[in-house]
Amino acid sequence: SRSLNLAVIPGDGIGQEVVAEGLKVLSAVLPQDVKLETKEYDFGAKRYHATGETLTDADLAALKKHDAILLGAIGDPSVPSGVLERGFLLKLRFAFDHHVNLRPSKLLPGVATPLAGEPRIDFVVVREGTEGPYTGNGGTIRKGTEHEVATEVSVNTAYGVERVVRDAFARAQARPRKKLALIHKNNVLTFAGHLWTDVFNKVAEEFPEVTTEYMHVDAATIYLVTQPERFDVIVTDNLFGDIITDLAAAVSGGIGVAASGNINPSGEFPSMFEPVHGSAPDIAGQGKADPTATVLSVALLLRHLGYDAEAARIEDAVSADLAERTGKPARSTSQIGDALTVRVAG
Amino acid sequence: SRSLNLAVIPGDGIGQEVVAEGLKVLSAVLPQDVKLETKEYDFGAKRYHATGETLTDADLAALKKHDAILLGAIGDPSVPSGVLERGFLLKLRFAFDHHVNLRPSKLLPGVATPLAGEPRIDFVVVREGTEGPYTGNGGTIRKGTEHEVATEVSVNTAYGVERVVRDAFARAQARPRKKLALIHKNNVLTFAGHLWTDVFNKVAEEFPEVTTEYMHVDAATIYLVTQPERFDVIVTDNLFGDIITDLAAAVSGGIGVAASGNINPSGEFPSMFEPVHGSAPDIAGQGKADPTATVLSVALLLRHLGYDAEAARIEDAVSADLAERTGKPARSTSQIGDALTVRVAG
Ligand SMILES: CC(C)[C@H](C(=O)O)[C@@H](O)C(=O)O
Ligand SMILES: CC(C)[C@H](C(=O)O)[C@@H](O)C(=O)O
């Protein structure tokens, strides 16, 4: 009999609530013969305040033993900006070499979008997850004085760029439209931009069926609101990916339904799945959070582990649920989770 | 009698066409006693191909003598990405210390937006223009090999951040709503982010009437499409400003109407005014380009030089023209320019 050994990190704010629903749906959808084991970890603001720790070597060793990680949200106004982000979220992405940050955007029927008309949106962003301006390189001199200088160094390697570009080409190749857009700012960030562009063009030769285009990140924000149907697969740098995936989420149903995977394709380390949204402390504990993004992250997790049929069942359940929402009174976090659980089981 | 000594840089693609209309409107709106002198410069792709030059020291010395600069667009597919951007556009912004990059966004009545509903959009972005990831710092080692490493260094100084933040506070103070948002990514780019945040909070103490907020750049893209009415004045870093002003232009009528000023508030160097759009080589020479963004850039130029009433007349003419467009057949570049000329003169 098979097993799925899952690390669960509810985290802060609404994290606890949405993860509970994600686990409900996961239990309901898994085949009978798969033994689900979960272990909960207490990372986040509470642990930081209690111990000063965000993520220790021992934590990393414990997490490494799992097949995958499900995360709710990390972040709280009581912790200075950057401490949990750099000390936990990014530390984990870097330690486990989560270089493929996968963020699908699909506007499902019946779902509201801030865009006029009825745009067709169905693309996936492959965001690099371990390089670029996210490395934490840089520093500050003369801090707090009028002569302060602060730098941030974006580090880009052929190794790091090629592996994520290759992953994106393979994904584009596997989709019906077979289109891949590279998004960067190679007319200004010429060192990194040329590396990205050269590697992209080189790898493109191995994928003659994939139609490619290059787009500056500023122009890409325009296309995301005026012609989102243009996109199929996007590959981009860590920071540009951060920015455009929030915009992509906003136009394709909101961050209440945006899922993501921090993937280590080699399997050397467990991959981590999380909603794109944050901990939303303003609505925490009130049962108001939409667990759909977490449930869709569970689908990404299942697909990553080879449970394709189960992932599809979750996605179908979410589509059906969203299609019926218009005009209905708002439901609580657990009501939505229950509805999805019934659908995937039935 | 007064004079206005203007450097005109039509540039590439549609630049020539839109600048011609901008000058028409400028001539029509200027008071009789102001002597307008213009000198045209041939920067751009043609000059680069002919001479290999983009912007020489002699060019800078010549440009420095003008009261202001009007630019159409620079950029052509025949020139490798980055050559004209770094060699002309950015070189000029840096040489003339254009640290206030001003980009207003106003959705005028009757103008189409990709957003649903009827959003009220009226804000201005103060984008830093001489620092951040735009400095060209960084480099490449082992170019073209599998061991290539390319870096980009974002350089941020207290001096550079404070002057632009101060400018933004003054602008917010002068507007009815008196709101200022700082946009950055201080939870990840902690060195630069903390400098920006600390300086912002310090200067805020001098402007107690201004309501402030901080927003991560990724979240800002969401608000720009879901709650654009939230914004009044935004101050941000060079790269974030580049990205969000294209998005802002897209939601508030498109880049056909987005104007910008590259301003040196001290007056030590002439400021430069240009449409946000590029050279659009695909429609160049066909009379299809909308000159409105250039005409509105002329209004910014006039206001910068103290011709407030004339700037307002241009803006009113544009509002009236845009309000009457719906349902009418498309006009040519010069037809739109002529219509605006009649309006400002009348
Ligand atoms: C919280 C933050 C570190 C993170 C990021 O910038 O990657 C978040 O915005 C995201 O997109 O997952
Ligand atoms: C062409 C390019 C150098 C420029 C920039 O990135 O600043 C443009 O996008 C702009 O916004 O003016």
UniProtKB/TrEMBL annotation, chains A, B:
<dbReference type="Pfam" id="PF00180">
    <property type="entry name" value="Iso_dh"/>
</dbReference>
<feature type="binding site">
    <location>
        <position position="127"/>
    </location>
    <ligand>
        <name>substrate</name>
    </ligand>
</feature>
<feature type="binding site">
    <location>
        <position position="246"/>
    </location>
    <ligand>
        <name>Mg(2+)</name>
    </ligand>
</feature>
<feature type="domain" description="Isopropylmalate dehydrogenase-like">
    <location>
        <begin position="5"/>
        <end position="340"/>
    </location>
</feature>
<dbReference type="InterPro" id="IPR050501">
    <property type="entry name" value="ICDH/IPMDH"/>
</dbReference>
<dbReference type="GO" id="GO:0000287">
    <property type="term" value="F:magnesium ion binding"/>
</dbReference>
<protein>
    <recommendedName>
        <fullName>3-isopropylmalate dehydrogenase</fullName>
        <ecNumber>1.1.1.85</ecNumber>
    </recommendedName>
</protein>
<feature type="binding site">
    <location>
        <position position="218"/>
    </location>
    <ligand>
        <name>substrate</name>
    </ligand>
</feature>
<dbReference type="InterPro" id="IPR019818">
    <property type="entry name" value="IsoCit/isopropylmalate_DH_CS"/>
</dbReference>
<dbReference type="GO" id="GO:0005737">
    <property type="term" value="C:cytoplasm"/>
</dbReference>
<keyword id="KW-0432">Leucine biosynthesis</keyword>
<dbReference type="GO" id="GO:0009098">
    <property type="term" value="P:L-leucine biosynthetic process"/>
</dbReference>
<dbReference type="InterPro" id="IPR024084">
    <property type="entry name" value="IsoPropMal-DH-like_dom"/>
</dbReference>
<keyword id="KW-0100">Branched-chain amino acid biosynthesis</keyword>
<comment type="pathway">
    <text>Amino-acid biosynthesis; L-leucine biosynthesis; L-leucine from 3-methyl-2-oxobutanoate: step 3/4.</text>
</comment>
<keyword id="KW-0479">Metal-binding</keyword>
<keyword id="KW-0460">Magnesium</keyword>
<feature type="binding site">
    <location>
        <position position="93"/>
    </location>
    <ligand>
        <name>substrate</name>
    </ligand>
</feature>
<feature type="site" description="Important for catalysis">
    <location>
        <position position="134"/>
    </location>
</feature>
<comment type="similarity">
    <text>Belongs to the isocitrate and isopropylmalate dehydrogenases family. LeuB type 2 subfamily.</text>
</comment>
<keyword id="KW-0520">NAD</keyword>
<keyword id="KW-0963">Cytoplasm</keyword>
<dbReference type="GO" id="GO:0003862">
    <property type="term" value="F:3-isopropylmalate dehydrogenase activity"/>
</dbReference>
<feature type="binding site">
    <location>
        <begin position="278"/>
        <end position="290"/>
    </location>
    <ligand>
        <name>NAD(+)</name>
    </ligand>
</feature>
<comment type="subunit">
    <text>Homodimer.</text>
</comment>
<feature type="binding site">
    <location>
        <position position="218"/>
    </location>
    <ligand>
        <name>Mg(2+)</name>
    </ligand>
</feature>
<keyword id="KW-0560">Oxidoreductase</keyword>
<comment type="function">
    <text>Catalyzes the oxidation of 3-carboxy-2-hydroxy-4-methylpentanoate (3-isopropylmalate) to 3-carboxy-4-methyl-2-oxopentanoate. The product decarboxylates to 4-methyl-2 oxopentanoate.</text>
</comment>
<dbReference type="GO" id="GO:0051287">
    <property type="term" value="F:NAD binding"/>
</dbReference>
<feature type="binding site">
    <location>
        <position position="103"/>
    </location>
    <ligand>
        <name>substrate</name>
    </ligand>
</feature>
<keyword id="KW-0028">Amino-acid biosynthesis</keyword>
<feature type="binding site">
    <location>
        <position position="242"/>
    </location>
    <ligand>
        <name>Mg(2+)</name>
    </ligand>
</feature>
<keyword id="KW-0464">Manganese</keyword>
<feature type="site" description="Important for catalysis">
    <location>
        <position position="185"/>
    </location>
</feature>
<dbReference type="InterPro" id="IPR023698">
    <property type="entry name" value="LeuB_actb"/>
</dbReference>
